[in-house]
Structures are given as structure tokens and as C-alpha cells.
Amino acid sequence: MIDAQRVDFVVAPTRDLEKAIKFYGETLGLPRSNDHAQWAEFETGNITIAVGNPESVGWEFAALPKGSIALRVPDVASARAKLEDAGVEFSGETIDSGVCHMAFFSDPDGNGLLIHHRYAPHADGRQP
Question: Over the Cα atoms of the chain, what is R_g?
């Protein structure tokens, strides 16, 4: 097969690159690592989030579904409060899944994100 080694980046489509740069860089506080006239990249520690306008290369815009990008945080309640203070609106209450707490929100283009913190061991016994 293809011998995939890992996922290097995900793409969050945007129609307004400057607004996306402000959201991912300032509101979420992700470090910006690279940019180009048509996209910008932000680091999360293990994967890059690239934001760009698909329409600029002739592709149709379609926002990512709810929960497509999960950002691990040390404390969901604290992170949620900070994001709400910055104007981010969440969909519903924080959820306790039995292994983690998670709270769902969207970026300005409607891409589905969530913050989460795993409090139970991974299936292979590793600690979160």
C-alpha cells in the first residue's frame, strides 16, 4: 500500500484569509509558522493547520463538519472561558465522553473545531 507515516497537516478552508489568520493566531493563540499569498499555517505541537481559500484555486468552498479539528488543552473549562471572553460561541454544553471533556465551536468560516482534555488512559494503557 502507500506506507503512510503520519498526518502532517489539515486544511481549514476560508473565504477571508485575514479573518482566519486573526482567529487562529490571535483568538486561539496558535503560533504562525508559514504563509503564502493564498494560505497561512499554524502549529499545534503535533500537526499543522493550514488555512486557505479553496476558491482561489478553483475549488468549491465547504466548511469542515463539527468537531473536525480537536485541540487538546490542559483544562477545558478554563480554555472555554477564555475563548468565550474572546467572543467564540460554543454549540451546547461541555461534554463528558467517559474518557475526556470536550466543547464544540466553529471558526469564522463555520469549520468545526473542539477543545478537549483526555482524563482516562488510552486504550493501550498510556496516560494522557
Answer: 16
CATH superfamily assigned to domain 9-54+63-118: 2,3-Dihydroxybiphenyl 1,2-Dioxygenase, domain 1 (3.10.180.10)
Q: Give the whole-angstrom CA distance, residue 21 versus residue 32.
A: 9
Per residue in 31-44, pLDDT (tens digit) is 999 888 889 999 99
CA distance 128 to 62: 33
pLDDT for 35: 81
Domain edges within the chain? 9-54+63-118
Residues with Cβ within 8 Å of 56's Cβ and at least 6 positions away in sequence, in order, are 38
Report the predicted TM-score, pTM, of the whole model to 2 decimal places. Answer: 0.90
